[in-house]
Amino acid sequence: IFKKLLIPQCFALACVPLRHQREREEESLREITLHLHQTPDIPIALSSWAHTTLMQQGAHLRNSLRGSYRVCSCSAGVRMASDDVLTLAESLAQTRVTEGELSYKGQGLKLDDAASVEQMVKEIQDFGGLRALRLEGNTVGLEAAQTIAKALEKKSDMQCCHWSDMFTGRLRAEIPPALVSLGDALILAGARLQVLDLSDNAFGPDGVKGIEKLLRSSACHSLQELRLNNCGMGIGGGKILAAALTMCHRESSAIGAPLRLKIFIAGRNRLENDGATALAQAFQLIGSLEEVHMPQNGINYPGVTALATAMQHNPQLRVLNLNDNTFTKRGAIAMAQALKHLRSVQVINFGDCLVRSEGASALAETVNEGLSLLKELNLSFGEITEEAALEVARSVRHKEHLEKLDLNGNSLGEEGCEALRELMESMNMADKLGSLSDDEGEPDEDDEEDEDEDDDVEEEEEEEEYGEEEEEEEEEEEEKSELHQYSTPPSAPRTPDVSSFLSFPSPDKLLRLGEKRSTLIQQQVDVLDVSKTAEAFLKIASIYKVEDEEVKSAVLESIDAVLSKAFLSPSFQGLSFVSRLLVMLGLLKSEDKLKPVKVVPGHLQCLEHAVKQSYFPPEHIPVLNAFLIRQNQSLEICSSARDQLKLTLQKLTPES
What we know:
CATH superfamily of the largest domain: Ribonuclease Inhibitor
CATH architecture of the largest domain: Alpha-Beta Horseshoe
Shape: globular
Helix content: 40-55%
Number of strands: 14
CATH topology of the largest domain: Leucine-rich repeat, LRR (right-handed beta-alpha superhelix)
Radius of gyration: 27 Å
C-alpha cells in the first residue's frame, strides 16, 4: 500500500517548483490520508498512524528540498564539504578529557573513512598516557576503525575500552573485521585491559569471533569488567565467548597471574541453556566474579542449575541478576542451595523467573540462614502464593542492610497482600516492601495442585521453542537493559540515588530524592533513546497515587521534566516514542518480542496528564486515540483510568 501510494507522491512532490511545493504537497498528503481512511482493508489505527507519519515526512521533505535549493544556489561541493567539517569540528569541540581518558561519548559522529577520523586520530596520538577511550554513541565504519586502530598501536597504557553502541546503522559484515583491527592494535600495543564494554552492538556470533583473539590474548589477562549486554550473541556466540575466557584464564594462570574477572554483563543475548551452560563452566574456573548480570536470555532450569553450580565457586559474588529467565521450582531450589555457600551477596534479582512457591520457600530458608549483607531481594512475578511470600518476608527480618523486598506481581490475593504489609510493619520494615499493585490474586486450588505438572510441561515447551529458534537470525538492537551498580554495604542506609529509583521505583525513594528530584531524573534519562524514555515514563508513572498529593505532585513533576526535554529536543523521534509506549502497554504488537508491562492506573493517569501539556505534540494524539478506542484485555483492570484517558484524547483529537 505504501509503495503504491507514498513513493509516487513523494517523487511528484520533489519535481514541483519550490514556490508551489507546499500547496501541492499538503494537497497530496490529504489525498493519501483520505484514501487510507476510505480503504476498508486498512484498520483505523493504521490510517491514523499513516496520517501522522505522512505529515512528518512531508515536513521533512520540505526542509530537505529547501536545503538542497540553498546549497545548489552556490558552490554545492564547497558548501557541503564545509558544512560537514563544521559539524565535525563542533562535535570534536565537545570532546571531554579527564585524567587519562579521551571521550567522544554520545556525539553522534558518523565516522566512515580515514578522513572523517583524522582529527580524532591526531588527538589520540598526541594524548600521553591514554588509559581510557570512549567511543560510545557514535557510528564507526570499517575504514575508520582501522585508522583508529593504527593510532592505538602505540598506546601501551590503555586499560578501558568504552565502545558500546558504536556500530549503529553498520552492516553486520563490517563489524567483525572492525573489531579484529581494534583488538589487534591493543595486543600489538601491549595493553593491559581492565574494562571492555561492547554492549548494544548487535554483532551476533560473528562479532564474538571478532573479539575472540583479543579475549584470549595477554591484553585481557588483567580484565576485570566485561560488558556485552544486548549484542545478539546467541548460543553460538555464548560458546565462543566461554571458550575464549577459559583459554584466557588458563594462559594467564600459567604465568602466575590468573584472570580475575569481577563483573560480567550479558543480558538480552538469547544465550539459552547451551550458551549459559558453557559460560557457567568458564565462571566456575575463573572463580573471582563479584557481579553477574544475565537477564532475558531464555534460560530455563538446566541452564539455571549450571549457573547455580558455578556461582558456588565465586565466593566474592555480590550481585546476581537473572531477571526474566525461567527457573521453575527446580531451578530455584538449585539456586537456593548454591547461595548457601556465599557470604557476600547484596543483590538478588530473580524477578519474573517463575520461581513458584516451593522455590520461594527454598530461597527464604537460605536468606534466613545467611546472606547477612543482603540489600535487595526481587522475587516479583514468580507465581508465589501467600504462605511462601510470608516466609520470604520473615527471612529478611534481621537483614539490617535491606533496602528493597520486591514481591509484586505474585499470587497473594487482597488478604495476602494485607498480611504481608502487616508483617513487614510489625518488623519495622514497611518502607522496605515494594509495591504490590500488580498482584495476580489468589490462585485456584486446581492451579496449585497442578504446579508440578506445569513445571514439567513448561520446561519441555521452552526447550522445544529455544531449539527451533537456535538457527534464526539474531535480532537487531533492543532497548538497553538497566544496570545498577552497588557498593559495599554502608554502616547506615544510604540515600537512594536516581538509578536506584529507576531500577526499583517506590514513592519513598522518589520523595527522598529531594526537591531537585525532577532535575536529577531528567539528567539521568537518555531522552534521545525512545525506549529508555518510554521505560522511564512507565516506571515513574507506576507509583502515581491519586490519594497522596505529595507523591502525585512529585510524579507529575518528574514526568513533565523528562517528556518536555524529550519532545523539545530537535532530534527526538516523537512518533517512535509513542509507538514504543503502545508496545510496552500491550496495545501494539512488538516485532522484537518485547514483553509488555503490567498496566496499572497510574500509567494511564500520567499519560492523560502528559497529553494535555503544551510540550506534547498534538499530531500524536490521534495515534493514541486510535489504539485506545480498541478493546484490549490489558486495560480492563484499569477501566476507570482508561475511560478518562479516552475521553481526554477524544476532546483533544482534531476533527478531520
